[in-house]
Design a protein that fits this description.
Layout: E1 4-8, H1 15-24, E2 28-33, E3 48-52, H2 60-68, E4 72-75, H3 90-107, E5 112-118, E6 128-129, H4 141-160, E7 163-169, E8 171-173, H5 182-191, E9 196-197, E10 204-205, E11 207-209, H6 210-222, E12 227-231, E13 237-238, H7 239-250, E14 256-257, E15 270-273, H8 276-279, H9 289-302
Parallel strand pairs: 1-2, 1-4, 2-3, 4-5, 5-7, 6-15, 7-12, 8-11, 9-14, 10-15
Antiparallel strand pairs: 10-13
Helix pairs in contact: 1-6, 2-3, 3-4, 5-7, 5-9, 7-9
Length: 303
Amino acid sequence: MTARLLVTGGGGFIGRHCLAPALAAGFEVWATTSTHSAPASRPEAANLHWRSLDLLCPGALEALICEIKPTHVLHMAWETTHGSYWTSPANLDWLALGTRLFKSFAEEGGKRLVCAGTCAEYDWSSGYMVEGVTPERPATFYGRIKLAHHQAMTATADLLGFSAATGRIFFAYGPYENPSRIIPYACAQLARGEPAEFGTGRFYRDFMHVEDVAAGFVALLKSDVMGACNIGSATPETLANIVTTIGTIAGLPEFIRLGARPDRPGDPPMLVGDNAKLRSTGWAPRWNLGDGLAQSFEWFRSQ
């Protein structure tokens, strides 16, 4: 029997990159995209089926699950409006959707469910985060609701008998990323031949190419790993190193203006996730930072 995979948020930044590795893994893939934000360019392939619908519309998700009866779900859809998602009450709507998803999935005989989580579910004062070791003590509304989503998923899986995991994303970058974020901003500015202004860039972050993030999610989906699993490179890089590398790639290092803007108050010095649990699935990253940034710069320049 062919494994049937439902990917919610299949037109989103990370979700769309999950489709190719899922197809390569042998899944029959059904991908959703919202009616109000359908991507202008959607991947097309044999064994890939699209459904345009508002997942938050009452009954829409349940009807879809009843129709396709997925054996697996990769739940990537969430509120992602840049900046505002940290405090948006819409996070509550997505938490409620998750509880409906878990119940419907189990009722239709689903076997394996993986949800997109976030490093914001941890206590950021730890700096280096390890599943089951670092306290789950989120400081933001977004992080608290995502943690509640993870806990609801785990409790439902235990009760109703399906296998489940949450992939906690650190910092993904690459094609289709929101243009307001640091790497797309740097790429776009330099592609136009204009300076790019930043804070000091002294903070360490765990950035990983979106194709490696997506491959990590599919590897997690195919595995029997349970609970929280970090999706990251485990390699600390300063923001300064990242943007100066883009400047070098663009041939305009002098256009990177570090210290031109104030740092955000309260930014943690380091946010990096251990990835030994993810590597236990057989996953390994394909992109190094230099090649990934070069590919990203060329993609944003082509836009």
